[in-house]
Amino acid sequence: MSAAAGPPPTTAPAGSVDVKNVSEGVKGAFKRALRTSMLDQVEGSMKVLFVDEEAKTILNEAMRMSDLLQAGVTLVENVTAVRQPVRSCAAIYFISPSVRSVDGMLKDWEKPPGNYASASVFFTSTCPDPLFEKIRNSPVRAKLKKFVDLGIDFCVPETLVFHLGMTNELRSFFGASTSQNPTYDTTVANRICNVFRMLKDFPSIRAGSGAVAQRVARLLGDRMQNDIRGNPALATTGSVLLLLDRSYDPVNPLFHDLSYQAALEDLNPLKNGIYTMTWKETTQTATKKEEKQQKKEFIIDEEDHIWTAVRHYPINRCVNELRQRREQLNADHPLIVQYLAKNGKDHGLSLTEVGEVTRLIPVFNAKRERFGVHNELLGLTWGKAQNAKIDTLSGLETKIVTGESAVNMPVRPADLLKDMKAVMADRGINSSVKARLVMLYSAAVGADSNNELTRDAGLGPLEKAALDALPMLEPWTAEKKSRRKSVPPLGGADSMEFERYAPHLKQLLTQLLNDTLPVDLYPPIGAKVSAKATVKTATAGRFGAKKVVWDDGLQIGDEVLQLASPSRIFVFVIGGVTHSEMRVTYDLARSQQREIIIGGTSLLTPDGFIRNLGTLSAPAAS
Q1: The overall pTM is greater than 0.85
Q2: CB of 269 within 8 A of CB of 605?
Q3: 150 by DSSP, 3-state: which?
Q4: Do the Cβ atoms of 496 and 382 come closer than 8 Å?
Q5: Once rounded to an integer, what is the mean pLDDT over residues 381-387?
Q6: Strands 274-284 and 289-299, how do they pair?
Q7: Are 453 and 431 in contact, with CB atoms under 8 Å apart?
Q8: What is the full DSSP assignment across 186-224?
Q9: How far is the C-alpha of 43 from the C-alpha of 616, rounded, in Å?
Q10: Residue 149, strand partner residues
Q11: CA 49 from centre of chain
């Protein structure tokens, strides 16, 4: 089994690991911060929460309506929407400091006594002085209970993942017109710093040698030092941040990763993380049969423990894993299976057993239904991969990015080019797949744009612009050979070609964890701090010191991982982080027993990366 994309190492079920302090990662800290710093600060059992689009995105990625209900929030509405007053409820405004959002809030208070019992305003980031004065001089002032700059201007979709929700950031940071504009650097540095403030954990910095990473690292270091001067304890956490920009690896965003989550986001992306399952249901009336279309929505997130367990598996092994888990579910509940098989009749169970079975059936059916959802999603995603011939092109892609064959023999450039030309001549492969393959070839091999390949691929204007822009992300030639590494040859009939390739981030994080990351290519900003796990020791009589494990744990889904060190490792990629990079972060967190948190200016999909590249020559966004 490959270390690149195999199932993550098994961790213990929750409660079976002897730990006292269990972290729920950056997502757990985020949910606590929203609860304690905003929702619990407003009194009352019935609250109305108003959000704008930015705050809605932040909220939706981390919390469900059930979380809000527990805090007394009974209604969530857009701050700019027309609405009826509810004067018995306290109003909470979680909004960005924009003119449109503030005006939407002030409209509720134009006519005394206002539309709600009280107003509490929480901004995602610092409110500028003109807006502050506008609020201070408005009728809402008489009913204002809270006015807080939360500093929560980032999204946290997973236990170990956060992002800034930026768009077109490659143009902002790498476009020719951005070199003299510090606005983008400052924005990213401030927002990363807000994440560390929430966690109360200010790491030392190792920055990639790319110009963008170096600029942002210095700004971020200055901001953290300002906070540390006010609270010196923040400097003693021992955590380390690896700050990179997308130039460190422009290959990975173009590669077809056929693990479940990465393939789903690439080939069959869900809208707002929701999958709608549809089916036809036949009912018999007195005179005829009626067939009706039925549908049900399912949220695919970390509260779905099946998803959390298998999302990083290769697609083919996901199918087998789901079948085994479903069989185990049936084996664990034989009485329920027996009862359902007989449709509740002639089941041979005692009254006591029937009572127990009927109590557990809803939970059992919900779990079984989830298996059906994931089987359907896997089938749809794999079907799209096969229709586009991505499954058969996986071997060629892997040879391109590793420079080696399936048996780890070097691939001759002439043979690689011959294979590329054969794909370009295949009319059964659509132009978008060909265009992405040509870009991958150019980024990985480092060859100039091959006119023949480009012509045969049928690149559109955007794709041609993206291909031409790739050299703008290539100040990395000194390290290029070290990037093209594969893992040992695969074993097992169920192995997939793409598993021979591991994103370059895995190599960098491994070096960081072993304290072997090259200082010349990834210099420290300030004092260098080792990311190695610290050993906790205790005296053991005449036999000297013995190793004692830390009593800290990390919960991922329904499993708890015992940590080898209480200090965190952070990695942040300016230009967006890929789902492949997220996967290797989780794999290393489990194998190295460390809390490794990954972030980026956005969650990057291949299509998004190509769109971003295609606009690099355009004027920067304001």
Answers
A1: yes
A2: yes
A3: coil
A4: no
A5: 94
A6: antiparallel
A7: no
A8: HHHHHHHHHHHHHHT---EEEE-SSHHHHHHHHHHHHHH
A9: 49
A10: 123
A11: 26
